[in-house]
Write the structure tokens for this entry.
Amino acid sequence: MYFSFETIPAFAWVFIATFVIYLIKKPRISKNEPPMVPYKIPIIGHTLDYLFNTQNFLAECGRQYGDPFNIYVYGQVNTIAGNEIAHEVYRTDTFSKASATQDSFPLHRVLKSLERPETTEKIIKTIRQGISAKLPLYTERIQKQFMISINKKIGDCSNPKLIITANDNFSNMIARPVADVLVGQEISKNEDVVKAFADFTKDFTSILAIPPILSFIHPKVHTQVITLPLRFGWNPIGKHMITLKENLKPVLEKRLKDKEILGDKYEPPLDIIEYLLNDPEYGTKVITDDYLNKICEFLFIIVVVSILTTSRHITCALYDFAGRPELWDDIYEEQVRIDKECNGELSSQHINKMVKLDSFLRESLRTFDSSTPIIPHRCMESYTFKNGMTIPKGRIVKTNLMDIHYNTTAYGPEPRSFLPYYGLENKFPASRTDKNYFIFGAGKHACPGRFFAVNEIKIGMHKLILNYHIKTPSGKIEKKIHSGPLASPPVAGLIFENRKKH
Ligand code: HEM
């Protein structure tokens, strides 16, 4: 290779810049901090191990350095909290999930109302009062919506049919009941609205595909750069906003008019838009464009937190079921018994009776295999853990979910093996958070949508298992896809074949 004399200054500059970055970014760990895991390459630190060998790397660090420990990733020191420490993080107000999430998931850039903490509080209240507390009233509608999706997406499988799950992970199947609950029975019939709900998160997350290389300088630089197109007018989700606004407007106007004409005789439909119309802060007398924007933003925030998560987990649970023929008869028999009992019309009591399916789902959620959940926490003030270790203000703390979900004290000597009836035997339903089960977080910020999510997945699986034999193409358990610390469902596809009518 030939280097000209003129290239020497360029090399010198690169060297000087690297050296300056090295000096600025050199982690400074104070005396009482969790131990810093040693690393060999300056600046890069543990980034490669964290990205390409996450599970083994974190497990080995835990074995050698205890809980918690510090690693150096993308130019930042992160504290990794495992089974002993994570509970403290989730239960202490010094740690903010909202502040940490804005860097890694800048949804507030497109849904501006998220910049106000009151919006999140209102959303949580709405989910608790408007969805969780009313779940029994929604059951019939949710199952109808599932059957529409199942018939459209899977349909007649007299001959075995391979359904590839890679692109959407059944998000359409989940989007339909979510649309029914959020915007009501009339609007959710519109396929464009269902598609907008199903695609919204996927389209938004397309901007997150850029690897956080610039975080080596500072995480805010990365966030600023990836959101540049958004600030200059490119909005990947604008079309979904328009679809929802167009469909909401006439329905909201009609409801206001009916209310005025019918007075006390008005029968309020059960859905979140009606809940919002009756809310002192979100109610209105006229449907203006500003009002529609406000309501659509609110609804799409719920869409983001609910559809991708639930569809990812129903898909994983189906793969877990399809790859374990030894469980098929037992779980199928439970569904047949309940189906006969309710004559095909599930109520919430019948869903509560799906105890084997619930236990199976809990196990699928427990063994999901994400090493750190996408929900990091930022330490808002210097904090001393109960074990005496201190971390500084601003430090990001990530939960080592595997350390919690695969702890031998709770799950025995083989905690990675699939224990389908662990929840049933120990009376731990899939929606209950517990110190050994963090898939829905913990403490006062634990997922408020978990009852809805578990209900949806159980209804969906119940109907699918009743109607089809479900297998993997290989006949074996399919491997999940890992990208860094995150896991996603396998992509091999699932084979559906009609069952003979029972
Ligand atoms: C299987 C599906 C789901 C999973 C695995 C999941 C998981 C989580 C996790 C891990 C958190 C953070 C909890 C914490 O910080 O302690 C969370 C928060 C949240 N989830 Fe879910 N979620 C699911 C479905 C849903 C659904 C269906 C909804 C809405 C209907 C929802 C709404 C929310 C909201 C609003 C928060 C923020 C709570 C807060 O900050 O206080 N989630 N979820």
